[in-house]
Design brief:
The chain is an alpha/beta fold. It contains 3 helices and 9 strands, in the order H-H-E-E-E-E-E-E-E-E-E-H.
């Protein structure tokens, strides 16, 4: 480690006054905050924690046979965006990287009734399964299921939570207070 970096880290550890920071171009506390924010936002998205979920399921007919090539539509109630997927030869559909929110799923296939599941609440790091059974009929007929029971995560034991912007601001304020109190010789 070169001498400037060594003295910079020593300065941070020792909580010296800001006159030592001027040597590194940080003459004002706002410039330190700016550099910290630039570093936070410069981290690639892929290196950050993933705040998404996965939805999957199997589409079957009333006899229990799988239905390949059925169209499954995932509708985000909050943003009105939609994603589509086709079931594979095993009747399986998968939606990955689903942001948290409220969703509705709709399954359609020629020769079968349309099935809809509304009121799906997707949470962070959730891998939820929603199977469908389609009845033989026309596509004008539909079956709608409202407000399903809470989805239980059985695929893994990962926990996650949504952090609101208010919580982030409170954390920043708390951190600022800690820094002020731990370095009494340095006033911001």
């Amino acid at each position: 480690m070169d001498n400037r970096a060594s003295s910079f880290f020593g300065l941070l550890r020792g909580c010296k006054d800001s006159s030592g920071l001027r040597e590194f171009g940080f003459g004002h506390p706002i410039s330190l905050l700016f550099v910290a924010l630039v570093l936070i936002f410069a981290i690639p998205h892929s290196a950050s924690a993933q705040a998404t979920a996965t939805l999957n399921g199997v589409v079957r007919d009333s006899s229990g046979a799988v239905i390949p090539q059925a169209t499954v539509t995932l509708h985000n109630i909050d943003t009105s965006t939609e994603r589509e997927s086709l079931t594979n030869d095993s009747g399986l559909y998968v939606f990955v990287s689903v942001p948290p929110g409220e969703y509705a799923l709709k399954v359609t296939k020629d020769g079968f009734t349309t099935a809809t599941q509304a009121g799906l609440h997707v949470l962070v790091n959730q891998a939820s399964s929603q199977d469908f059974t389609l009845r033989v009929g026309s596509t004008q007929q539909s079956v709608t299921v409202e407000a399903s029971a809470v989805n239980l995560e059985t695929g893994n034991a990962t926990l996650g939570s949504v952090i609101e912007s208010k919580q982030v601001l409170e954390t920043c304020r708390s951190t600022d207070e800690i820094l002020r109190n731990s370095c009494p010789s340095r006033r911001v």
